[in-house]
Amino acid sequence: MADTATKINDVARTSAMPRDIKMRALRLSKRYGGTTALHPVDLDVRTGELLTLLGPSGSGKTTLLQIICGLVEPSSGELFIDGVDRTHAPSHQRDVGVVFQNYALFPHLSVYENIAFPLQMRRVDRDAIRAKVMRVLEMVGLGSFSARFPRELSGGQQQRVALARCLVYQPSLVLMDESLSALDRKLRESMQVEIKRIHRETGTTIIFVTHDQEEALALSDRVCLMNAGRIEQIGTPAEIYEQPQSTFAADFIGISNKIRGRVAGDGWLSSVDGRIPVPAADSARALSAEATISIRPEYIELVEQGGYVDGEVIEQIYAGSETRLLVKLGSGTVMTVRQAAGSRARHVGATVSLQWRESHSRLLEK
Question: Distance from the CA of 358 to the CA of which of 58, 72, 183, 234 falls in 20 to 30 A?
Answer without folding.
Answer: 234
